Amino acid sequence: LAGVAKENLADALNNVGYAAMLRGDYDAAEAYFTRAIEASATHHRLAADNLQLLRDLQRTKIARATP
Question: Tell me, what's the pLDDT at 62?
């Protein structure tokens, strides 16, 4: 992310977060989505939607693990 222009940083953070989510690294994904939202000059809808998707996945994973 070091070479990413400031105006593209939120999108790049969202993309990295999405890749982390696909790998199952939910902690990293949450951190990147949150940083994307914070780095965005306006509301970053895609990062917010991805963060909600991540939370839904986490709840589903917990529900499946609970007997």
Answer: 76
Is this structure's pTM higher than 0.90? no
As given in the structure block, the two tokens for residue 62 are 């917990």
Chain centroid to Cα 6, Å, comes to 18
Whether 33 contacts 54, CB under 8 Å = yes
Closest residue by Cα to residue 21 from 57, 48, 45: 57
Q: By the 8 A CB rule, do 16 and 1 touch?
A: yes
29 is written with which tokens?
A: 């994904």
